[in-house]
């Protein structure tokens, strides 16, 4: 609630700036995550977003009508589904992206995407690579996207809310523990420093693999059983227990035996974005509601 | 003496496998621990059965195709198993056994296809065509698999590859029971072919003159070795190197007589995989290494050393 109020206040405070930002005097230049300098003559009008988080950010800052291309994974907000898909984006289909005649392409900063961005730049299409691995990356990404689309004020209010969330101290001590199972055979779990690890901490849960210094890691089933988490969290859109719950070896994990699963919808929990705060609140509510 | 040493090595590997693990269970509590009984013990036994099966399958196939490079997974079975697993994920087959059964079916499909290609003029099995056909069928299955994975919009399909290279984490008393009931038949078929396999080393013509029913032996050995490998891939994914190297190591000590070589390859392969899996679970704990990485890291230096001795002698 306090966060909403803060957003509202910021929106009011920034209102006059919007008008100035909407008509910038000169070209917009940004340095992207790969250190490439990208210049736009004017705010982008035709944007291809190659990451669901970027699509959510664009819609959240009121630039949804400028999105002319998205990935197959971009399923939120529902209005985004009306935008033509350019494929799964892994790696981007440069030709399909170019066919949308964009004046800006937003890409997640990864090795394969640097190549795609260079290819797009070669076609004269400005392409910006942005980092989005952690909660802290959200605010900066929102500000850059805001400048590129001429939505500086709206982006700033979004970014400020995200910075607040990222700066929030997790409640201590965390009474409940959980493990995020990404894959069951071999068991792959979420480790320290990843986005989901932060979400859990903010929601008041302790990730039992917070000592693993990697976003995700293969571990032994035995380790999961020995660390004895209260909950097994999986990204799943259905409410049914995951298939591995029926496998005998998984019965060695107490939370699996007791059916203590947290099925987290992938669209809300699987990506950092404007709804990260909502994800934290939903997870906290589910933990508090449980016995 | 060498049998005693091999037996001791296997026993030690099994003992280490149940006493060591990332959970750090005190020695005094080992016998009461749920983790030891329901995770470590079945995993150790499954590793032994899978490693032994791959060792015997490799030894049999190397004799059959008379090629030291033959590896059970060279015959297209891993490609077929991967395709089966991806189809199971893509069609949302549910149930705890869906993935292993689908992989097994895929491996059997590849087996049948390679076998049919290898049957020249509908009768004689040509070992060279088995090898080439295996590589071709494996590549074709892998291509279809990759096509399905890249065309489908489900992220979990990409994980089929994780499953395929997964190792022994799916071990439970259920999987041990299934393999323990299944593996003896093809193993007995291979052990029974020990004498004709010795003769086959002389070449098909001389073997025939010495009284071996060459065509029948070739068919039986190929099918039995493939059935063993298909089961291994279904319960533990593709674990490379064991089926290639264990027979060679065994041959250096036990010679070329299959009556001794095949049991030695079974115990040696089992011991190697148990040891490799113990290392995979413990050296980077709480993380875990893919067991195929460890079989290669442990096996290659040993292999290189023996290879040098072999070529010098």
List the helices and strands and how they pair.
The complex is a heterodimer of chains A (291) and B (313).
Chain A: H1 2-22, E1 28-31, E2 37-40, E3 47-49, H2 52-60, E4 67-69, H3 94-99, E5 104-108, H4 111-122, E6 127-130, H5 138-149, H6 152-167, E7 176-184, E8 187-190, H7 195-202, E9 205-207, E10 216-218, H8 221-227, E11 231-235, H9 254-257, E12 261-264, H10 266-269, H11 276-289
Parallel strand pairs in A: 3-4, 3-5, 5-6, 7-9, 7-11, 11-12
Antiparallel strand pairs in A: 1-2, 7-8, 8-10
Helix pairs in contact in A: 1-6, 5-6
Chain B: H1 2-19, H2 34-65, H3 77-90, H4 98-118, E1 119-120, E2 124-125, H5 127-151, H6 155-158, H7 160-164, H8 173-182, H9 184-192, H10 194-200, H11 204-209, H12 214-236, H13 242-254, H14 258-282, H15 291-312
Antiparallel strand pairs in B: 1-2
Helix content of chain B: over 70%
In total, how many beta strands of chain A? 12
- What characterizes the major β-sheet of chain B? 2 strands, antiparallel
Beta-strand segment tally of chain B: 2
Percent of residues of chain A in beta strands? 15-25%
Strand/helix succession of chain B: HHHHEEHHHHHHHHHHH
Strand order of the largest sheet of chain B: 1-2
Q: Quickly give the structural class of chain A.
A: alpha/beta
Give an account of the 3D structure.
The complex is a heterodimer of chains A (291) and B (313). In chain A, helix 1 (2-22) packs antiparallel against helix 6 and helix 5 runs antiparallel to helix 6 (152-167). In chain A, 39% of the residues lie in helices and 18% in strands. Chain A is an alpha/beta fold and 291 residues long. Chain A starts with a helix and ends with a helix. Chain A has 11 helices and 12 strands. By secondary structure, chain B is mostly helical. Chain B contains 15 helices and 2 strands. Chain B has helices at residues 2-19, 34-65, 77-90, 98-118, 127-151, 155-158, 160-164, 173-182, 184-192, 194-200, 204-209, 214-236, 242-254, 258-282, 291-312; strands at residues 119-120, 124-125. In chain B, helix 2 (34-65) crosses helix 14 (258-282) and helix 9 packs antiparallel against helix 12 (214-236). The longest helix of chain B is centred in the first third of the chain and has 32 residues, at 34-65. Chain B is globular and about 60 Å long. The two termini of chain B are 22 Å apart. The chains are: A alpha/beta (291), B mainly alpha (313). Chains A and B meet through helix 8 of A and helix 2 of B.
